[in-house]
Amino acid sequence: MFISKLKTFLKNEDGASMVEYAVALLVVTAVGVSTMTSLGTATGESVTDACGVITDAGSIEATC
Known about the structure:
Helix content: over 70%
Oligomer: single chain
Number of helices: 2
Largest sheet: none
Distance between the termini: 72 Å
Shape: rod-shaped
Strand content: under 5%
């Protein structure tokens, strides 16, 4: 009885599909997080540079 249930469990691929989807979701999430982090850093540096240019020009008082 136990052996037949074990064989059935090992042949069942529903769990494998779920694991594959979970791994794919993990990869997509990791790529998304790293992309957003990189874009956020680049945007922050651009804003800081722009603020510095505006402050150096003396046209307005800006706090960065």
